Amino acid sequence: MKLFKKEDKMSSLVTANSNLLPVINRFGIRLGFKEKTIGEICHEQDVNPDFFLAIVNTYTEENYFPEKELLSFSPLLLIDYLKTTHNYYIGYVLPKIETLLERVIASCKEGCTSLKMISSFYQKYKAELLLHLQHEDEKEFPYIVDLLKTRKLREGQKSIAEYETEHTDVEEKLSDLKNLLIKYVEPGYNHNDMNEFVQALFQFEKDLYDHARIEDAILIKQVEMLEEEIKTNAVQ
After folding, report:
1. Which of 17, 122, 130, 213 has a CA 20 to 30 Å removed from the CA of 6?
2. C-alpha–C-alpha distance, residues 203 and 207, integer Å
3. Listed residue (111, 119, 97) closest to 198, CA to CA
4. Which H/E stretch holds residue 175?
5. Collapsing DSSP states into helix, strand and coil, what is residue 91?
6. pLDDT value at position 55?
7. pLDDT at residue 77 above 90?
């Protein structure tokens, strides 16, 4: 398993895995790395190099998940990263996927019943995903920030576990959409356009999976530990 280190050149990340480029961009880091190392560029961009490496290595190696290390970082770092990722999904990924789907539908010359069903499913999925992201940005993250700031549990306030029960399983529904395409779509479309659309769904599914495990296994666990600490201190 190849894990990146501070001494490695930043260019080696993109050379090894071009899918890391949007992940790197979420830290405000852009192309034009020259011969600079990861540590040098993180210093220039005021990015925590250990946090940066933990994230990019998590995306690089599926079996790599430094839970103990990630738990040591401030939840605020994680929230900033997750919010930037949400903006990337909303502002770029979803519009791109929708454009690709529209192109596939436009290429279909006959009936296209199955594609219309796919389009309907996608619109419902997108609406649920946007609601999910909005829920986190407007309710869950502000709750965590307030908890870190005040170290108090407000009366009537939901716990992080209660917030989590309100979540929809967006990863599972994206997988359903992908399987509908692979198994049941009828021919009659431009196959190159369809392949590009399916590949975009695969890439988004992988990104969502890594995004969710960082959020669920790290941020939520941090907050649950903090809630327990506050409750314990309150009864002493």
Report:
1. 213
2. 6
3. 97
4. helix 170-184
5. helix
6. 93
7. yes
Best CA proximity match to 217, nearest among 87, 65, 63: 65
How far is residue 141's CA from residue 6's CA, in Å, rounded to a whole number? 30
- By the 8 A CB rule, do 65 and 1 touch? no
Residues contacting residue 33 through CB under 8 Å, at least 6 positions apart: 9, 10, 11, 41
The separation between the first and the last C-alpha atoms of the chain, rounded to the nearest angstrom, is: 47
Domain range list for the chain:
10-69, 74-235
pLDDT tens string 120-138: 999 999 999 999 999 999 9
Q: What is the pLDDT of residue 79?
A: 96
Our measurement of the distance from residue 133's CA atom to the centroid of its chain's CA atoms, rounded to an integer in Å, reads 10
d(CA 37, CA 40): 5
Q: What is the pLDDT of residue 233?
A: 86
Cα distance between residue 58 and residue 209, in whole Å = 11
If one counts every other C-beta atom within 10 angstroms of the C-beta of residue 73, the result is 18
Distances from the Cα of 176 to the Cα of 61, 172, 187, 188, 232, angstroms: 24, 6, 19, 22, 43
Instruction: For residues 52-79, give the mean pLDDT.
Output: 90
Residue 6 is classified by DSSP as T
Centre a 10 Å sphere on the Cβ of residue 56 and count the other Cβ atoms it contains: 21
Overall average pLDDT of the 42-58 stretch: 95
